[in-house]
Amino acid sequence: MTDAGTAGTITIGGDLVVNRMGFGAMRLCGPDIWGEPDDPAAARAVLKRAVGLGVQLIDTADAYGPEVNERQIADALHPYPADVVIATKGSGTRPSRERWDVDGRPEHLREACHASLERLRLERIDLYQLHGPDPNVPIEESVGALAELQADGKIRHIGISNVDEDQLARARSVARIVSVQNEYNVAERSSEPVLQACEREGLAFLPYFPIGAGWRAAKPTDAVEHVAEKHGVTSHEVALAWLLRHTHVTLPIPGTSSLAHLEENVAAASLRLDDDDLAALG
Prior knowledge:
The chain has 282 residues and is an alpha/beta fold. The protein has a single domain (4-281), classed as TIM Barrel (Alpha-Beta Barrel). Helix content is 38%, strand content 15%. It is built from 10 helices and 11 strands. The strands form 3 sheets. Strands 3-4-5-8-9-10-11 form a 7-stranded parallel sheet, covered by helices on one side. Strands 1-2 form a two-stranded antiparallel ribbon. The longest helix has 15 residues, at 106-120.
């Protein structure tokens, strides 16, 4: 069985070294990322299996559930293995099943971080990310609040999510940013300028929806299907292997609630695309 370590490692913030195939835990919640799943034991089994397969970074957020996902991770994995990094996010809010809002006020972020620490049973969060900029709050104020939490020992490293180049630069003007998490995959590359900025500045880039449109899986392109057929693998494996080859700063975080799909995703770590494959995928 392929181990996530086959993808190689990436260093985040100078001192967090993890295998380059992570796991996005969001889909372990109930439908619409709301509430508990129908089978909580199965969700715990997926988390345990991910770690068993060498996954060392698990991505979550307080908005997933809301709150459910962080509790799932702690229930399944605490006390955490020494080499496992739990990355969570704040500023996203869920007033209802249908709504995804954002609250970047410093007072909300302080409250959200402390609540995440309690749910995750941690004294310090290794990677805490701003889930998204609040259009009503300057990003400097939101990130400044995270910098204060970092100074207080509650956060080890700061990341940001759903940002453009300008927002990344503004965030970096007030705190040391070590990672960016934006949507990015073989079919959706609008964050290419942000990815290139991460390459220049030595930041980790965590592409979410790395296979396509999240839980609404996108139809593979003809090029992806052709490469998959050539190698005798699935289109999902090709999409993940492409992210690993496209640049050295990516750390894909595919998510699933299925043990079989988890093993398929991790298997992408060993898929070696050649130059012809990369040319076909663009």
